[in-house]
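Researcher: Checking consistency across runs. Here is Flagellar biosynthetic protein FlhB again:
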Amino acid sequence: MTDTPERKTAVALSYDGKNTPTVTAKGQDLLAEEIIALAKANGIHIHEDPHLANFLNMLELGEAIPKELYLLIAELLAFVYMLDGKFPEQWNNLHKKIVAEA
């Protein structure tokens, strides 16, 4: 999402855990506000970055993000997973090893 004096932009991505994230919704002004409200009502995390929103807004609905954004989007997804209390299996095993050794 981006807030500028001229326009508000929102872009929603979908990720199934296997394929490249794709654009599932996008809009400006009133439509952007509706996308954001719907996301908040459904407990979907929102990341505010004007440059990213403007770049993603150039993509078509259903279009996969370009390779240039893989790392950035992966970092955002990993952060969201951690906010939701989801960690890779290896992290749980590492935590158990640390506790057992202490």
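Researcher: Does this match what you'd expect to see?
Model: One thing to look at in this run: The longest helix spans residues 70-83.
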